[in-house]
């Protein structure tokens, strides 16, 4: 009867009988962390499955994962600092910004883009399952006349920002500096995302200016911190949240890559916003002008119960942080500022951020050192069927508590925030249909402002026109295309 033997790395290399024990060294390591139960069904596994299980365990950084689990579980129930609202005076509000100031920021941003100081960082690890699609969320077509995917809309905005920056200094002649696009995928979306870009020839971008990298995963655990087994030969794992971008940038050595390219500022955003202004020159110029290490675009909450996180201060005069809507009680969500008549907690986080590269390096080290992850109780597929367990995640906004200086920049919801989160028919908000209408209505206003006219066979509130991002970034330079012309909605306006 054969025996399980293991090489120096612990992998199974020989045949085995059902009574042969798992590799002793690996078993002892698991016992050190209280996770030896992963071998509980060892004797029932085939030779191949035993090898799969051993390799799965070897690929886990057990000391790090154990530290994360212990710190995260221990943090639950601890008192948190008092939450204070963010004063309206500390936010760059749309109401008080002058046209001259906006134009100055726009020019500052274009200059920094021309100098190669800006990189764009996309959080694209999510799948389109909630939208009824098997593809990565960025591949989704929200039904615009052009049929463009979210990825294509964003790529074309990068192309437009590059062109505007080149024109601002070269008067339309000469070359340009490419904006590098770093795209974080997940193990579930990486291959499909790469193939989608390849099949669409990178939407007009140069191949060299796009870098894909994967966020990490972390084992799902029970409430007492034990690994949940997805199958007898595999530990259940889930992505480590969009905040996993910091450690992923570090382990992929992409922070060094950015530095080598001369990047100073990083524009970071989520994939599921059909109106996102990628590489926004105005926001970049504002960020540079304020001299802060981090900034976020915010919109005012539409109503008290809106399911969005809001910016707060942790403790009196403490750092900015984001509190999720699920962490706020009714009294907080409905509290009114008596001086303004508006909600006290009104600044919604919409995942549109700007960071200095130096600060990203600090965060990548700081979050890893703290090892505190958010715990989300979820249904997890396991060897015992679907069970309740814990997924461990970090969020992109966790970085703000490390920032010595953060600026909040209010934007107009109808111009920059069209979330695509829920399938049509399952919700009244944040659907492909609602996002499409926001795009069409905004672009219709641009056409009219540029001297164009619209005709329509269905009510205008239900339709509109789409302007290609290759024509205009934010409604500028449309007079030559639109003035005196009539467009029948719905349609796409391009060159």
Automatic annotation (TrEMBL):
GO terms for molecular function: UDP-N-acetylgalactosamine diphosphorylase activity; UDP-N-acetylglucosamine diphosphorylase activity. SUPFAM superfamilies: Nucleotide-diphospho-sugar transferases. InterPro entries: Nucleotide-diphossugar_trans (IPR029044), UDP-sugar_pyrophosphorylase (IPR039741), UDPGP_fam (IPR002618). Pathway: Nucleotide-sugar biosynthesis; UDP-N-acetyl-alpha-D-glucosamine biosynthesis; UDP-N-acetyl-alpha-D-glucosamine from N-acetyl-alpha-D-glucosamine 1-phosphate: step 1/1. One of its GO terms (biological process) is embryo sac development. Residues 1-26 are annotated as: Disordered. Gene3D superfamilies: Spore Coat Polysaccharide Biosynthesis Protein SpsA, Chain A. It catalyses: N-acetyl-alpha-D-galactosamine 1-phosphate + UTP + H(+) = UDP-N-acetyl-alpha-D-galactosamine + diphosphate; N-acetyl-alpha-D-glucosamine 1-phosphate + UTP + H(+) = UDP-N-acetyl-alpha-D-glucosamine + diphosphate. Residues 1-19 have a biased composition (Low complexity). Keywords: Nucleotidyltransferase, Transferase. Pfam families: UDPGP (PF01704). It comes from the Eukaryota. Belongs to the UDPGP type 1 family. This is UDP-N-acetylglucosamine pyrophosphorylase. It comes from Papaver somniferum. The lineage of its organism: Eukaryota, Viridiplantae, Streptophyta, Embryophyta, Tracheophyta.
